[in-house]
Amino acid sequence: MKLDDPANADAVVDEIKRVPGMESYVASSMAYYLSMMTVNHLPGLSAFIAVVIGISVAIGFIVIFRPCTPR
What confidence tens digit (pLDDT) does each residue in 3-48 have? Predict the structure, then answer.
């Protein structure tokens, strides 16, 4: 749901949860979801970032230090 003012997100989420029949649905603000996307909440993220950095460094060394062949 798009709001006119993002500062009202928590109030709108609380109002949605008070509507009869909506108690079983998950309603959260975007700020809550973004706060959950940290290294502490996503256990494989730091390992994934380390692998990507390692591959990038290896490719960088291969590209920079490859032998030049005369044509």
Answer: 888 788 888 888 888 888 887 888 888 888 888 887 777 788 888 9
What is the C-alpha radius of gyration for the chain, rounded to an integer number of angstroms? 23
CB 16 within 8 A of CB 27: yes
The rounded distance, in Å, linking the Cα atoms of 26 and 22 is 8
> Which pTM does this prediction carry?
0.46
For residues 40 and 25, the answer to whether their CB atoms sit within 8 Å is no
Q: What is the largest CA-CA distance in the chain?
A: 77
Of 7, 13, 8, give the one whose Cα is nearest residue 28: 13
| 18-24 LR contacts (CB < 8 Å, sep 24+) | none
